[in-house]
Structures are given as structure tokens and as C-alpha cells.
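Quick sanity check, Phospholipase D family protein:
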Amino acid sequence: MHRLAPLLLALLLAGCIPPAATRTASMALLPHEVAATRLGAWSLGEAAARQGRSGYRLLPRGDEAFALRAALVDQAQRSLDVQSYIADDGITTRVLMGRALRAAQRGVRVRLLLDDLASLGSEGYLAALDSHPDVEVRLFNPLLRGRGSLLTRGLMMGLDLDRQHRRMHNKLWVVDNAVAITGGRNLGDEYFDADTRRNFADLDVLAAGPIAADLSAGFDSYWRHPLAQPLARFATAQPGAWRQLLEELEAWQATQREGNRYFQALRRRYAEAPTLLGPLIWAHGEALWDDPGKVRLTGRPALDQTLAGALAARLDAPDERLLLISAYFVPTRQGVARLAELAEAGVETTVITNSLAATDIPAVHGAYARYRPALLARGVRLFELRPDGEDATGAGLPGASGSSLHIKAMAFDADRLFVGSFNIDPRSLWWNTEVGVLIDSPALNARLWALAEEGMHPAVSYRVRRDAAGRLSWHARDGDRHRVWHRDPAGFWRRLGAWLGRLPGVESLL
């Protein structure tokens, strides 16, 4: 009987399953509705003049990625669809949600789809947003019992770990089905270079034209899935609570306009921007996403049931070079074997990931570290972002104080690239759902390589090398001085965290 005590306690603490809430039927705008909007008429016209291609621009700067999101909300006329794994409180999220409420007041339909973990500690705030008649918030893969406290939530997640460790990792921002932003950025100050303590070096891609409609179809597949449950099932606010929330958000913004350095810098940089979207590169591309039902599968899905499988099916092996940029890089034995095959075929392979000192999840670094000797022995070039780089490039990429890499991108030879939410690790491959865009464009491929070269600068990243005896060393630049470390440049606690990532059975969950 005593063995059942933890289970009985969890059930007593968890309470009952909340009753189902009504899900309002909605779907992406139809083509004639898109054409009736300003952004839609422009994007469709531009695409038609270019034989149906879509327009793209890489967004490496966090402040620009934020400014574009805010400006697009102001331009929205019919719909705003937002999908995010994380939605932290902060100055950028407050501005964006305030503008989303203003858009709803103009009659714009706002749909906010968050992974359930994003609702932790924010249900009251989200319920106030949800109280607007033109705003609906849904949670993906929500915990049905035990949401009242961290203790009960942890207990109930532990009882359903096979499903609860699988998360919706997608990031997407779509306005009027005409313009979209996808990539690595969640909602939070650290993703838009607005955090005073730590910022992520990240990358989005702005996409206009037919590709935006494709991404909208992906959003709809999640929005309409049974795992996307209305927030109202778990939390509600008084009717009209959105009015008080909007007043509070705008009063707060008024206090920030003159004294906040981030907003001052934004005004100086973008006040005289010639166009909203800037110069676009028009090319053929394809939106790819995991089926939302991936979260419900028992065990590992088949490769052809994943975004990674879809990407592999569309790509031939590179002939000359391969670039992999991943915040969390755990190639597994199969991945190392594949990279070895490419190296033997003469393909130059470059990997950029986080150093142990820069990563926000040391256990992932520990799982990756076991593969470094084999990768280096096969000629793979390894670069690891420093947390204290000098930002010698001035591009707003890696190198800011307290930085950590969050980019997920790949470049294949000189003509194709993929940008999205997909990390090269077992979690993105098997467990989480992801989204991204595969683009055929030598110009964008070259732009991604240029960003990578900035990230590989010795003032920004460590170059990991292996000598003839198999010993590893880390090479970087401090000012005008070349420095070499003969062990991972990190402290004791990070080394301990990395050790945890090497424990049996852990790698497959990272």
C-alpha cells in the first residue's frame, strides 16, 4: 500500500479535469480575403510579377526582429496569428501584446497559440487577453490536472512524462496571411536584445508572398488540432478585463518612451527606415513543419513522420560544403557517421554551436562533447560561441556580453538554406514539433555564410582543434592576443551540469 502513496497523493492534490471549453471555429484567410488587405495586395502583386516566388530577408538583429513584429501588427487589417514555445513577460512582450489588443479593437482577429509551459505563472494575464471578443488564446498539449501549483504540476507531469516532455517548439508570426516571420525567436526580451543581463544570438527569416499562406496552413493544422485547447478551459477573466490590461500596458509604455535606452535606440535606428519590410530576395521556397499529432505518438516516430525526414527527402547530399548552426547540437552516433561519409566525399563541414560557458543547458553540451573527438578526427570544423566575445563584427550577432547562441539554420553548398526552430538534437528530431523554411537562393545562402563567418571570428567563438595525440584545445582572441585553453573554458558547476548529460539514457531526451 505504501508504494501507492505518492500516486494517491498526486491524485488528491491534482483535483478534477476541467470541463471542455467551446472552441471557436476559425481558419486562415482565403485568397480573396488576403487580396483585400494592404499587405496581401502588395505581396500577391509582387509575387505574381516574379513567377510566384516569395520574398525573404534574414533577420539576425534582435531589435530589428522586434521592430518588424510591432510594425506588422500595426499594419494588420484582418488577422494576426502567433505561435510560440515561450512567452515571457518583459518590455518587448508587453509592447507586442498591447499592439495586438489595439489591432483587435480595429477588428483584427488575433489567435495566440502557446505551448502549455508558456502559461506557467501567466494564466491571469493571458486570460485578460483572451477576454477580448476578437482574441483567442489556446494552449498546446496542456496538462489537464494539477495546474494549481508547481508542486502538483510537477507531480502530474511526472505521471504522464511520455507525453508531457514533448513540446510544441514552433515559432511563427503571420499577418493577414501575407507576411510571416519564423525562426528561432520566442517571445521574451532575451530574444530581441532587450535583456540587460543575457541575450540570445538568434535568427529569423521574414517571408512574404505565397510562402506566408503555406505557413498559415501550418499554423491552422496546430490551431485546429485537439491538443490545442482554449485557455478558457483552465483560466478565465472578468468580461472586459482586456480594457484594464490595455490601459495598464499603455500607461507603462508611456513611462518607458523617454527613459528606456532600448526604445530610444530603436527610434534612432528605424525611425527613418525607407520601407517597412526592407529589401527582399525573391526565390522559391517551401514551408515545412511537424504534424502536430507527433506529440501523441507512442515512442519515437518514424523518420518520414518528422520535419527532419521531410527535409532530408528534399535534399541531395551536398557536393562541396555544409554549414550547421545549432544552439543545441547533439549529432548522435548516426549523425557522426553521416558527417564522416560527407567528409570522406570531400564535403567541408562547419558546425557552430554554444561553448559550455555560453550554453543555457550544460547537460546538452555534455552530450555533444562526447562526439567532438570523432567529429574533429573526420575533418569537421567546430566553433563554439563565447559568452564574453568582443562583438568585433558589429553585426549584432554573437559577441554581446552574456550572449548565448539560439540560431537554428543550415546551408547546403552555395544555393540552399533552411531557417527555423529545429535544433540538431534528439529532442527536435523525435519529441518536439518544429517549423521552418527551406529556400532555394544563392544570395540568401551567401548571406547566411557571411553571418556564419562573423560568428566564427576568434573574438566571438572558440575554434576547437585536435592534435595528433587526440588532445583537444580551444583557440580564441583576447584583444590582440591569441589564447589557447586545454580544457573546456568553463567553471565547476557547468562542468558538473555537462557531466549529467553523459549519464546513460539522458542523451535521447536532450
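Posting the structure with no commentary besides this: The chain has two domains: 29-270, 300-509.
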